[in-house]
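Sample pair:
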Amino acid sequence: MAEKVEWHKGPGGRSDPRSVGLVRVGDLEIDQRVQRTVDPAKVDRLDASWDWALAEVPTVSRRPDGTIVVTEGQHRQMGLEQRDPEAKIWVVLVDEVEGTAEEAATALGIAKGRRPHNPIQQWRMRVTAGAPHETEAEKVLSALGLTVTEGRSSRGVAAAGTMMRLIHGTPSKPLSPAAGAELLRKTLSVIGESIPEDSNQSAHRFDGVIIQAVGNLIASHPDLSLARLADRLSERTAAQWLAFRRSATPSWRGVQQIIMTDYNRNLRSGRLA
């Protein structure tokens, strides 16, 4: 039987129609008709690494039969319930929401009102928070005289999302912070050497497509010659390399394939496959 909840009216003042209550997480209900599809992997992650400091307060509604339904925050509720169904969590009740249509509209409105951090903002916050991969990678950028910037420039790298994917590796082959930083150093050094800073294409030399193509190639072929790779890259401008992104999906594969073809040309041994 659901525990009785003591509701505290108007946390935002007299004009605030909401109430706040401490509810046993096992008493909260999820209605998939008014929520996005549940991601079981996300629920498992929240269960395994629950952090109260990151547990935003869910928004709930109350149906005529007294059922308290989560309209926003279902993964938090399910992760905590999976971890401990007797745990209690603060929730915000919006009693003016009536029926599944209004519940769905509320969930959608909250989701639309949130602006996720873009990759550059994520990078900067990770560095500030001391995340090991981004912290080590930031040292590489500093040593190379490069910075993460919103706009492209000869010494500004806007492809923060690409760099984060590169330095962390893949789920099957994750990289340590040191290994990720070293891969980034090789990748950016080869590109920087191949496409000079004073060229008319320098603002595009650290495009995410080029970084991904070169980085994946180096990661997949640790014995390749970086000098030969840089020499082959220098045979085309950044714009010419980027033109090859139209030939494959994802786009960086088209660039990588041409790089491999150029690298293998006139090479009898040590060819890339």
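The chain has two domains: 7-113, 119-264.
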